Amino acid sequence: SRGPANGPMGARRSDSNRLVALEGATVARSRAALSPLHLCSSAHSLPANMSSKQIYYSDKYYDDQYEYRHVMLPKELAKQVPKTHLMSEDEWRKLGVQQSLGWVHYMMHEPEPHILLFRRPLSKDQEK
């Protein structure tokens, strides 16, 4: 299947898994809202091939409008992630996140602030 079935990050889930707005962005309040991410076996532990000082980049996943990916930061860097706003490209690049142009930090997941959620619009060629 092509990515988040219930819209970005399960946006159509029940109130118990609700998403809340933060400065025009969406913040996931529950772990269940991350299920479309296809995280490693446990989002609380690092993938087997990741050291505690590395940045981990997920594979890309899709819906009808966007291409998504998540980035897991090591604990030292996670402390530098702002809690009051989504990061600009300049801010996440200063943390050491490296990705091609067009990615936007679009959502914060409060229980796991070390996971940055990115998306970018699909190109006309990628749209179905």
Series of secondary-structure elements, N-terminal to C-terminal = EEEEEHHEE
Largest sheet: 7 strands, mixed
Rg value: 14 Å
Overall shape: elongated
Helix count from the secondary structure assignment: 2
Q: Roughly what is the average pLDDT, rounded to an integer?
A: 72
Distance between the termini: 13 Å
Structural class comes to mainly beta
* Low-confidence runs: 1-44
What is the element layout, followed by pairings?
Layout: E1 19-22, E2 25-28, E3 56-57, E4 61-62, E5 66-72, H1 75-78, H2 89-94, E6 104-109, E7 115-121
Describe the protein.
- The chain is mainly beta and 128 residues long.
- Helix content is 8%, strand content 25%.
- It has helices spanning 75-78, 89-94, and strands spanning 19-22, 25-28, 56-57, 61-62, 66-72, 104-109, 115-121.
- Strands 1, 2, 3, 4, 5, 6 and 7 form a seven-stranded mixed beta sheet that branches.
- The protein is elongated and about 40 Å long.
